[in-house]
Every structure is written in structure tokens, then in C-alpha cells.
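Whiteboard transcription, Tuesday session. T.W. wrote the C-alpha cells on the left side:
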């Protein structure tokens, strides 16, 4: 499986189906194993009604971690199972905060179109909850969580541009109905904050969380 490290080195497992998150890590020197959690995010968000926005995204990231830990501990795959002996699990969740409401993936063209008409020409806060779990000796021994927020400045695009963007399908399965590193990047005036967090996983915050659980990020870099 891609992402395996040499024996004796700490394994890194990304608990996400996002190719963008994996690409951010690989471009930054970490080629992770990948495992996807089977989590009903919509039900979990519904149960967090009234919680602070940062609490929602960090709770989702933690819930994904818990699901991934359970899968690692019962995996028949040798590389995945090795994460339990000496590994780090990275999980994230992103949502856009606009007008006091959090928005995840729109999933349908109708929702994506409505969101873009509400967002255009305005600013929103893209919040990404991060959870880093240290695995050792067959158990989770430490966890660190936090949130990175980035201001997104949306362009005042026309209905025609919105319709064409939605028709590509790109915004349907991404938090906030936009991307920074894809077609959606053309429809932004800019951002204020960490670009890697907008793409899906903040390198500065992940480094900090790794420090909190006793892992030096430089020891995780793949040989070049």
C-alpha cells in the first residue's frame, strides 16, 4: 500500500478520503497511509446544535479519529495494523462559517448554487478542526486537537459563472462549496490566513499538534 514507511519508523495514517489533504502532506514530505472512517457526519453535526463552531469541527475530527483507531486495532492489513505499534493518525474536518451558520459539503447542485449566491462578494471563515493521535504499543497514548480559521474573500461572480462552476461538479463534495487549489480558486479574491488549512489540513497547526504529542515532524519526512 502506498504510504508505507521503512521498518522502525513511525507510520503516519491520514483518516480522510480527501485527495487534496493527501496531496498537501505528500508535497510537504509525508506520504501517509490512508484509511477512511465510516462516520455519519450529518447525524453528529445535528447532535451538536448550539455548540460553538470551533467545537463542532474539532468534535468531528475527534470522532473520525476514534473510528479510525478502532479500525486500525482490528485491521488485517499489516501496514495499517503497524500504525498501532508506532504511529500517528491525522484526522480533520472543515466547514465554512457564514452569517453564524456552519456549512459543510453541499452534495447537490441546488444547494451549491444557493450557497454561492449567498457567499459571492462576501467574506466567510473556513474552519478546519484537526486531531492528531499518537499510537504506541497497540493503543492511543496521546491526543491533541485544535482549530485553524482562515478568512475567505469570495468574488462577486455572476449567476452564469456560478452555474458553470456548479455544473463541473467540483463544489458538491467540498466544504463550503469551493476549492482554493482547483477551479474554485478563480472565483476568490483572496484569503487571509493559512492556505494549507483551506485545502484541507494546516501544516503549521499539524506541526504544533505533533509537538504536543511528542513527535518531531522532521522524523516523519520521507527520504528524498
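and on the right, the sequence the group agreed on:
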Amino acid at each position: 500500500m502506498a504510504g508505507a514507511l521503512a521498518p522502525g519508523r513511525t507510520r503516519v495514517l491520514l483518516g480522510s478520503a480527501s485527495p487534496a489533504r493527501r496531496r498537501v502532506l505528500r508535497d510537504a514530505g509525508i506520504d501517509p497511509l490512508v484509511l477512511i472512517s465510516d462516520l455519519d457526519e450529518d447525524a453528529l453535526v445535528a447532535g451538536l446544535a448550539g455548540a460553538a463552531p470551533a467545537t463542532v469541527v474539532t468534535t468531528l475530527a475527534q470522532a473520525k479519529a476514534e473510528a479510525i483507531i478502532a479500525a486500525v486495532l482490528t485491521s488485517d492489513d499489516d501496514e495499517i495494523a503497524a500504525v498501532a505499534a508506532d504511529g500517528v493518525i491525522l484526522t480533520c474536518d472543515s466547514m465554512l462559517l457564514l452569517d453564524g451558520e456552519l456549512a459543510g459539503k453541499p452534495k447537490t447542485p441546488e444547494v451549491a448554487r444557493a450557497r454561492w449566491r449567498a457567499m459571492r462578494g462576501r467574506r466567510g471563515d473556513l474552519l478546519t478542526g484537526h486531531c492528531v493521535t499518537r499510537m504506541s504499543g497497540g493503543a492511543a497514548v496521546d491526543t491533541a486537537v485544535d482549530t485553524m480559521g482562515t478568512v475567505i474573500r469570495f468574488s462577486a461572480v455572476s449567476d452564469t459563472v456560478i452555474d458553470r462552476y456548479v455544473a463541473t461538479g467540483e463544489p458538491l463534495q467540498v466544504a463550503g462549496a469551493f476549492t482554493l487549489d482547483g477551479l474554485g480558486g478563480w472565483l476568490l479574491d483572496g484569503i487571509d490566513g493559512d492556505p494549507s488549512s483551506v485545502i484541507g489540513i494546516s501544516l503549521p497547526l499539524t506541526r504544533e499538534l505533533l509537538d504536543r504529542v511528542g513527535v518531531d515532524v522532521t522524523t516523519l519526512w520521507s527520504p528524498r
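Someone added at the bottom: Residues 3 and 31 are 5 Å apart (CA to CA).
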